[in-house]
Amino acid sequence: MPRAMKRQHRQWLLATSMLLLVWSCTYWEPYPAPSPGKQQRLPSSLRVTPAGGYKTLLVEPYLRSDTLFGRSAGDTLKFPLEHLQLLERQWVDGLRTTGLILGTTALWIVVGLYGGGLE
User: Fold this and answer.
1) Radius of gyration of the chain (CA)
2) d(C-alpha 119, C-alpha 117), whole Å
3) Closest listed residue to residue 87, CA positions, set 34, 38, 23
4) Which residues pair with 68 in a beta bridge?
5) Pairwise CA distance, residues 102 & 115, whole Å
6) Are 48 and 79 in contact (CB under 8 A)?
7) Which of 6, 34, 27, 19 has its CA nearest to residue 104?
8) Residue 18 and residue 107: Cα distance in Å, rounded?
9) Neighbours of 98 (CB within 10 A)
10) Phi/psi zone of residue 82: left (φ > 0), alpha (ψ -120 to 50 degrees), beta?
11) Cβ within 8 Å of residue 40, ≥6 positions away
12) What pLDDT tens digit does each residue of the chain (119 aa) get?
């Protein structure tokens, strides 16, 4: 295999591994709706699904009275609590992360031994 193809193959494998790493380590879990008028600490990001609407990722959410505010794509958005269908927060899964790291390492070793040889 020519060197340029080996290099391209390794770059593709690295990009794929990184993408899998990001997808496999986190998941979204339901988050209880905050109580109106009560100050409470919220996660750094929340995924909001309003009734009859699309999912929206809010960064740095905060609560004022009975409305949830947050930043999304450079804009500040607001969602009245009574119109929320679902709130979710991102969570890291330690078992998935460990499995993916070990699996990716094993894949790199196999590709290195069989694809690149012991030059």
Assistant:
1) 21
2) 6
3) 34
4) 63, 79
5) 19
6) yes
7) 19
8) 13
9) 11
10) alpha
11) 34, 63
12) 555 656 676 777 777 766 666 666 778 899 998 887 777 889 999 999 999 889 999 999 999 888 999 999 999 999 999 999 999 998 877 777 788 788 878 877 877 777 665 55
Q: What is the DSSP string of 27-90?
A: EEEE-PPPPTT------SEEEEEETTS--EEEEEEEEETTEEEEEETTEEEEEEGGGEEEEEEE
Residue 7: CA count within 13 A, CB half-sphere: 3
Q: How many other β-carbons are positioned within 10 Å of the β-carbon of residue 45?
A: 16
Close Cβ partners of 114 (under 8 Å, ≥ 6 residues apart):
none
Full-model pTM: 0.61
